[in-house]
Amino acid sequence: MATDKTKSYRIIAEDIPFEHEQKEKIFKTFFAVSDYYKKHPNPGACHLVSSIFYVLLNEQNIENQLCVGEVKTGTQYFDHSWIEINDRVFDIAIQLTLDASRNAPVYAGYDLLTEVNTKRIYGSQSPTGFDRDAKQILKTPFVKYMDDYPQLREGAWRIVKVIGRELRLKLDIIELRQRYLNTERTLKQQP
Fold first, then answer.
1. N or C: the chain end with fewer CB closer than 10 Å?
2. What is the C-alpha separation between 64 and 179, in angstroms, rounded?
């Protein structure tokens, strides 16, 4: 695939070879979350963005994994969260990292700027391992994490509900909290 900087990420994503029975819903959900994130930038919010994306996909009966691990880019490693569907990486939060670097999102394993498989290695293991924040994420129950999002009275569930409305989903926060009580993040580590 040749890079054409005038193409939008949506157009590029439509051309990516990714087959799934709910491909259209995955596409719409990915870009609904991405658009919200662009309107409400939050550098380093990978755990939040991935959690929201995870719930919205699940609420449409799209099986996915909420992953946490380290990502290697070049010689650097960073702790991160992302979504996998059929073993393909979907990474919205990479667009604005904690160090304020801007990157193209990853859709079905493809970097939406270069239009080729991402060069980042998801699930890598650095020599130093996880930092304190990533260790805390792994220990924090999912519902508590969503409840404790500080900027909103209803926690991160409020964001799920706002984006869900755009996707024509009727979501009740009390029901969501119950449904996700046993949710755990998938620790991704390559040998």
1. C
2. 15
73: tokens are 């880019």
In terms of Cβ atoms closer than 10 Å to its own Cβ (0-12, 13-18, 19+), residue 33 is buried
Give the Cα separation of 181 and 167 in Å (integer): 23
Minimal CA–CA distance to 124: which of 66, 86, 79, 184? 79
Q: What is the pLDDT along the chain (191 residues), one digit of tens a residue?
A: 444 455 799 999 999 999 999 999 999 999 999 999 999 998 889 999 999 999 999 999 999 999 999 999 999 999 999 999 999 999 999 998 877 678 899 999 999 999 999 999 999 999 999 999 999 999 999 999 999 998 778 999 999 999 999 999 999 999 999 999 999 999 998 76
Q: Report which of 133, 145, 118 is spatially closest to residue 48, judged by C-alpha positions.
A: 145
pTM: 0.93
CA nearest to 57, candidates 92, 28, 77: 28
Cα distances from 31 to residues 8, 35, 73, 79, in angstroms, run: 11, 6, 24, 23
* Crossing angle of helices 157-166 and 46-58, rounded to 10°: 50
